[in-house]
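Work Package 3 (structural annotation) set out to generate three-dimensional models for the target panel prioritized at the project kickoff. During this period the team completed the workflow that converts sequence records into C-alpha cells, so that structures can be stored uniformly alongside our sequence database. As a representative example, we reproduce one entry of 254 residues exactly as it appears in the project archive.
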Amino acid sequence: MSVTSPYSASKWIRDFHPSDRTVPRMICFPHAGGAANYYFPVSRALSGKVEVLAVQYPGRQDRHTEPPVTDIHALAAHAFRELPREGLDRTWLFGHSMGASIAFEVARLMEGELGVSPAGLIVSGRRAPSRFRGETVHLEDDEALIASVKALNGTDPAVFADPEIRSLVLPTLRADYRAIETYRPAGTARVACQVHAFVGDEDPLTTVEEADCWRAHTEGTFALRVFRGNHFYLTPRANEVIAEISRLILPAAG
C-alpha cells in the first residue's frame, strides 16, 4: 500500500519515498545548480530506514518560473520555515557544497529560533565558514561560468550544448554562485549539534585542511571523513557515502 506524502503541498520539500515518519529523518540540501532529485538515489537506498527529504530551491525543474534566490541566509530562512516541526530532535541535515552552507544556517536557525538542535549536521564538499576564498565566478561571462562548472565534472555537458536548456539553466546557476561566493556567516558561526565533514581528497574547491576547520564551528563532537575523488566524489563513491550516512544516523536512532 502506498503512503501519501505529508509534504505534497510544499514547494520546498520533496519526499521521494514516503515513510511512516517513525524512523530517523535526513533533510538534504543540493549544491549550486543542483536540484532535489540529486538525492533520489540516496532516498531509494535508505527507504524504510531513514525518511529522506530533499529541498527544492526556486528557479529549477518544477520551480523554473520562480526567480532564484541569491542569498544563502534567505535560502536557509525559506527552507527553515518549511521544516516539519515534529521530530526535529531525530532530524539530520545533509548538504553538499553550497547546500552545506545552507544546512549549517538552517541548523543555526533551529537552535536560535526553536531552541532545538538537529540530531546531527553533515557538511560535504564545502570548506568551513571561517575559511574564505575570494571567488568571483558569478561576475564572469557565461563562457567562463560554464567552464568553471564543467571543470567540476558534476553537470552533464549536454545541458550547455542545447541553447534552450542553457538559457534556462544559466540564470539560476549564476544566482547560486553569487549566493555562495558572497556568503558570510552572521555573528558567532557555531552550532551545538555534532558535525561531520565529508570531502574528496582531490576536491579543488575544498582541501582536507579547509574541511577539517568545521571543527571550530560546533560545540558538539566533530569528525572528518575523506573519500577518494574530486568535488563530486559522491557520485562514484555513492555506496561508501550512503554506508557512512547509515553508520552515523541509524545507531543514533537507538
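Strands lie at 13-14, 25-29, 51-55, 91-96, 120-124, 195-200, 222-227.
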